[in-house]
């Protein structure tokens, strides 16, 4: 093994992989600024540099061994295939390649995610909104995948976090007496060739602006082609002020999306499908599934959006409050509504000081559910390739 490289093997496992982000931990020089990763050919030669980003750099002194996390993008890996990669630790300059950046405008209260300098989505946290939201969400060719529902459901604002009943507060609708989510600040955590990331620190307050809960949401956008954008929502709800009761209601969605009107099933071109092949609203509303996809034709393009539930989330696989008029939410709370059985409840309680975490991936794609290989991309998220250090 070269003193200038650390070698790792990445195994595809049971599934074909495409543009998959993987993570490795390497020993490094405390003075380093970045690493470079290359695929290793069969003859031991190094291929072109891959998008690479240091994730966690140790703040260690000279007497300690230093290590850091390295994320890189594997372009392709077949099921059952293993490829070797060299993580260069010799301080060589990384090639200049487009990445993901965040344009944080604290005056306008927006955080725009730019991939290769082009807008993908914008997190809007102004107090002019009842709740923060991500809008627009742009797909292939710059088409708007989501919408603000200005007429039928004005609280459906593109992509957002909301719950219908928390300690008696309605933080779902915009009807009289509703609660609010007030952003207290947004911090840019990372930018680079692999991903950009923000932390939004939000307070949930009553209609009288009394705080009753905190929400810490980390949004990560990855450096993917416009035919397959990836965005993770890591949502933590914290019982910071008092014990919390989340009520059983269908008017809720830990992560919610409103699809653009031409993509609706009702009156549009859209089709709803889940991981088990369930079709349309009737076979998806209130049904559990690891993922659901909503796709159709928009401005002459076949496009869609899928939400992936994590196996680590509460009540995996989640049930879905997904409608033919474009509402699309991961809702693990409304069991009595979904089953029609009041004895089956989705209520959840947290004592003061406790918290609960949810992680979802949003996959904005070209094509329909089959063309976009939505099921395979869920496995990239839920069961990623295995990374193994190569011993000397």
Walk me through what this model shows.
- The chain has 392 residues and is mainly beta.
- It folds into 2 domains: 5-94, Immunoglobulin-like (Sandwich); 100-382, Beta-galactosidase, Chain A, domain 5.
- The chain is 4% helix and 48% strand.
- The protein contains 2 helices and 27 strands.
- It has helices spanning 335-339, 374-382, and strands spanning 5-11, 17-27, 36-40, 46-50, 52-57, 67-77, 82-88, 100-105, 110-115, 118-124, 133-137, 159-166, 169-171, 180-190, 195-205, 211-222, 228-238, 244-246, 253-258, 271-274, 291-298, 301-309, 320-322, 327-330, 348-350, 355-366, 386-389.
- Strands 14-15-16-17-26-22-21-20 form an 8-stranded antiparallel sheet, with helices on one face.
- Strand 15 (195-205) and strand 16 (211-222) form a beta hairpin.
- The longest helix has 9 residues, at 374-382.
- The relative contact order is 0.15.
Task: Give descriptors for this structure.
globular; 392 residues; 2 helices; Beta-galactosidase, Chain A, domain 5; mainly beta; Immunoglobulin-like
User: How many structural domains can be distinguished in the coordinates?
Assistant: 2
Name of the CATH class of the largest domain: Mainly Beta
Which value, in Å, is the CA radius of gyration?
22 Å
Residue runs with pLDDT of under 50 for 5 or more positions: none
The strands making up the biggest β-sheet line up spatially as 14-15-16-17-26-22-21-20
Helix fraction bin: under 10%
- How many DSSP-defined strands? 27
CATH architecture of the largest domain: Distorted Sandwich
User: How do the SSEs run, as a string of H and E?
Assistant: EEEEEEEEEEEEEEEEEEEEEEEEHEEHE
| CATH topology descriptor of the largest domain | Beta-galactosidase, Chain A, domain 5
| Relative strand content | over 45%
Q: Which outline best applies?
A: globular
Structural class: mainly beta
Helical segment count: 2
**End-to-end Cα distance:** 6 Å
Mean pLDDT: 93
Report the major sheet: 8 strands, antiparallel
């Amino acid at each position: 093994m070269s003193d200038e490289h650390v070698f790792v093997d990445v195994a595809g496992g049971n599934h074909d992989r495409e543009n998959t982000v993987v993570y490795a931990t390497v020993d490094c020089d405390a003075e380093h600024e970045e690493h470079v990763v290359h695929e290793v050919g069969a003859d031991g030669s190094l291929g072109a540099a891959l998008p690479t980003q240091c994730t966690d750099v140790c703040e260690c002194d000279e007497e300690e061994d230093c290590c850091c996390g390295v994320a890189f993008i594997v372009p392709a890996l077949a099921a059952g295939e293993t490829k070797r990669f060299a993580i260069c630790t010799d301080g060589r300059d990384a090639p200049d390649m487009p990445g993901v950046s965040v344009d944080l405008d604290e005056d306008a209260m927006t955080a725009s995610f730019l991939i290769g300098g082009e807008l993908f989505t914008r997190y809007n946290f102004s107090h002019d909104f009842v709740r923060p939201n991500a809008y627009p969400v742009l797909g292939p060719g710059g088409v708007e995948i989501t919408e603000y529902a200005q007429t039928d459901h004005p609280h459906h604002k593109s992509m957002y976090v909301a719950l219908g009943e928390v300690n008696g507060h309605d933080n779902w609708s915009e009807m009289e007496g509703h609660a609010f989510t007030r952003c207290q600040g947004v911090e840019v955590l990372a930018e680079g060739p692999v991903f950009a990331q923000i932390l939004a620190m939000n307070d949930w307050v009553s209609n009288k602006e009394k705080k009753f809960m905190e929400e810490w949401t980390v949004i990560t956008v990855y450096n993917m082609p416009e035919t397959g954008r990836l965005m993770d929502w890591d949502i933590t709800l914290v019982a910071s002020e008092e014990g919390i009761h989340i009520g059983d209601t269908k008017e809720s969605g830990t992560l919610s999306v409103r699809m653009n009107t031409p993509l609706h099933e009702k009156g549009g071109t859209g089709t709803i499908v889940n991981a088990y092949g369930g079709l349309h609203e009737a076979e998806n509303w209130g049904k559990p599934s690891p993922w659901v996809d909503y796709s159709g034709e928009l401005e002459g393009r076949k496009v869609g959006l899928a939400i992936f539930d994590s196996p680590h989330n509460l009540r995996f696989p989640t049930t879905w409050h997904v409608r033919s008029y474009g509402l699309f939410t991961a809702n693990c709370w409304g069991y009595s509504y979904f089953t029609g059985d009041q004895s089956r409840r989705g209520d959840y309680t947290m004592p003061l000081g406790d918290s609960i975490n949810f992680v979802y991936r949003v996959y904005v794609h070209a094509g329909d559910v089959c063309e976009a290989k939505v099921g395979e991309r869920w496995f990239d998220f839920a069961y990623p390739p295995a990374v193994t250090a190569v011993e000397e």
